[in-house]
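Appendix B, Record 12. Input sequence as logged:
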Amino acid sequence: MPEREGNRKPFQLTGSGSPERADAARNRAKILAAAASVYAERGVDGLALDQVAAVAGVGVGTVYRRFADRGQLAQGLMDAHEQAFQASFMTGPPPLGPGAPAGDRLRAFLHAFVDRLSTQADLLVVAETATPTARYESGAYRLHHVHVVALLDELRPGADTHYLADALLAQVAAAQFVRQHRDEGLSVERIKSGLDDLLTALTRVP
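Logged structural output:
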């Protein structure tokens, strides 16, 4: 794993770029607090921007200026979880963090992703499917992809690791997890076992 990865700052899902004005930051915090309240009370299906605006006591236009759609709002709700996840695989203890062999780190990353999906799949589905390319345009996906590519480069020198990283990450898309776990009844353990088999096949040197 290149040392530069550990020094890279986590991507921000929302609120990245120039520092916000104090009033804009307050509005964003108020909106996210309201969104968390709406989500806790009504679930993901009730997470509508007009409802969030009403609970926050702001105009709908204020919400839309901060979050263009439900997907961005869902991303905002998951910012803290995403930052913690990033820290765990970039600077946390092995095998998920630096210090373990690349294969062990990649397996731990995929397993940790599945654990996260088991509690956050509803919000992740909204965040990833708001537009056809929403998942791939997020800072989170870009960082996940860079991380997986770096590990695959160690395991499969000379392979098309950019493509292989996309192939692996496709298996932990939120909609895929919901279909497998909720609709088809696959256990978390079975999904992890399947990922292990796939990882073994993808990283086997010809």
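Residues 96 and 108 are 5 Å apart (CA to CA).
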